[in-house]
Amino acid sequence: MPVTSYHADYAWLGGDSPAHEVRIEVRDGRIASVTPGAPRDGTRLPGLTLPGLANAHSHAFHRALRGRTHTGAGTFWTWRDRMYEVAARLDPDSYHRLARAVYGEMVLAGITCVGEFHYLHHAPDGSRYADPNAMGHALLAAAREAGIRVTLLDTLYLSSAVDGAPLTGPQRRFGDGSVNAWAERVRALEPGPHAVVGYAAHSIRAVPAAALAVLDPGKHPFHVHLSEQRAENEACQAWYGCSPTEFLDRSELLGEHTTVIHATHLETKDVERLGSTRTRACFCPTTERDLADGIGPARALADAGAPLCLGSDSHAVIDLFEEARAVELDERLRTETRGHFTAAELLTAATETGHAALGWTDAGRIAEGYRADLVTVDLDSVRTAGTQPLAGAVFAATAADVTHVVVDGRPVVVDRRHRDLDVSAELKALL
């Protein structure tokens, strides 16, 4: 098997500072060896090279709302009406084209794996396509063509409210009618080598207790929106007599196999439940601030034992560096003190923990035996010049500073250009 050799000016191998002059040898899509302090040899990666970034929470079709919903008054619920309008217009072909461009944008931003929280299952009137997984297969094909790995988190969505009210309007295409029909459809998905199929429950309001009770994620990744809105907490308390977190705990759905999304409005006992069960929490700060959701207790969750990961969710921007630093900066706004997370902690959330949340435990580190996902950040841009490499990447760099991206040993972005797609042209044509 041929060996490809890369030489990174700096490479983050873990810890609080990067290694210098690092040779990274790749064989058959995996890292064969890592040698700091090596003489220059092979393809040079100028700047700081990081493990591939993991976007643990995505709704690809929300990208169509960028620049269209950010002004004016309103709440999450008024924004949701606009989102439903977009959802009602997509079919498998248009969704494939949109998702391919969105995933291409992610790769350009250094994202090598995405968790697609997928509930846009059927035709607008709720009827099934000839292939019941046509929309899911469109997403899988889009990821393959964009050069990114994907965990398709096929989402159970049965009711419009916590009291079990039926799906209406655009929501009808989200539902399968029953948990058994959903499970049967998911079993027919054909992921391919670049993909993993995981499971999701949309939220407490969208999956009644009886359906949650029969879910058994086992070793598959399991994700669920949790306490994004205070109204969700109030409805759960009124209907079930407990918080959404306690309800998931009673349903035996918390644990290391589970990632809760947002976790914004939590009581102290909720934080303790998530931490003691080692349930992961995915923060999506750019979406949470865009939708005026609130600021979640990131440091308290981490201290309690809940590993943090990151997502771009509605894609107000696609920039994991911005998501990472926002976790720290939001804590500063909430507490009026500085210094809650180190750069290394934030990078771990963006890399190793995110990959683990998506079921790729062999990714997210530059280490022997791991998948050869390499992301190089320019240290000479107007944003990063003169910074310390690690802190500069986390607290100053943007997606525009990503120069090279290797996914599973294959170069996908070279000199800031996607090798297979003209992403800007595709997005402009679609939107």
Q: What topology does this entry show?
A:
Blueprint: E1 3-11, E2 19-27, E3 30-35, E4 43-51, E5 53-58, H1 76-87, H2 92-108, E6 111-118, H3 134-146, E7 149-156, H4 179-187, E8 195-201, H5 209-213, E9 222-226, H6 230-240, H7 244-250, E10 258-262, H8 268-276, E11 280-283, H9 285-290, H10 298-304, E12 308-310, H11 320-335, H12 343-350, H13 352-357, E13 374-377, H14 389-395, E14 402-407, E15 410-414, E16 417-418, H15 423-430
Parallel strand pairs: 1-4, 5-6, 6-7, 7-8, 8-9, 9-10, 10-11, 11-12
Antiparallel strand pairs: 1-2, 2-3, 4-13, 13-14, 14-15, 15-16
Polypeptide structure, described:
This protein has helices at residues 76-87, 92-108, 134-146, 179-187, 209-213, 230-240, 244-250, 268-276, 285-290, 298-304, 320-335, 343-350, 352-357, 389-395, 423-430; strands at 3-11, 19-27, 30-35, 43-51, 53-58, 111-118, 149-156, 195-201, 222-226, 258-262, 280-283, 308-310, 374-377, 402-407, 410-414, 417-418. The chain has 15 helices and 16 strands. Helix 5 links the parallel strand 8 (195-201) and strand 9 (222-226). The strands form 2 sheets. The protein has an 8-stranded mixed beta sheet with strand order 3-2-1-4-13-14-15-16. With 431 residues, the protein is an alpha/beta fold. Helix 8 (268-276) crosses helix 10 (298-304) and helix 12 packs across helix 14. The radius of gyration is 21 Å and the shape is globular.
